[in-house]
Amino acid sequence: MKVATCALLLVLTAAAPALAGPVSQTFPVPLEKAWTTTEKVLVHLGWEIDKADRSIGWITTDSRRLGGEDYGVYAKGLRHRLRIHLKADGGNRTTITVERSVFKRERILWIDNDEPVKTDDQTVEKNLLSAIGGSF
Asked: How far apart (Å, rounded) are the C-alpha atoms in residues 59 and 134?
């Protein structure tokens, strides 16, 4: 019985999707250069910056639509937004971490109802880091 239970737990653990965490990369540039380059790359890729605070090293983008409809007062669909954290890693190195949140949004008369969606796709985060790295 114990063997069967252990085997079942092993199968369930292997079948469960892995939850994707943030994606990080360290670049050989000072923090100031990494910050300005990251902002420029975000704008170039069509991401609008919602909030940015250099003192704590966070940039948050506005959400973008992945699919669905948007009629102004009514919207229903899938959206995502990025949170980028920049941290000095020694004298001339900066670690950039990108975290993407995906959520379902339904808007009725300008009231948004967002529901988080789990995903393990990290293509957007990796492409952003690649674009930032190619801009130095």
From this structure: 19
pLDDT in tens, 4-41: 444 434 444 443 334 567 999 999 999 999 999 999 99
Neighbours of 69 (CB within 10 A): 9
Residue 29 to residues 99, 112, 132, Cα–Cα distance (Å): 21, 39, 11
Contact 113, 107 (CB under 8 A): yes
Residue with tokens 């239970």: 5
Model pLDDT for residues 63-101, shown as the tens digit of each residue:
999 999 988 899 999 999 999 999 999 889 999 999 999
Q: What is the pTM of this model?
A: 0.80
What's the sign of the alpha-carbon dihedral 42, 43, 45, 48? positive
Residue 53: enclosing H or E segment and its boundaries?
Answer: strand 49-53
Name the region of 77 (left: φ>0; alpha: ψ -120 to 50; beta: rest). left
| Best CA proximity match to 94, nearest among 23, 41, 22, 27 | 27
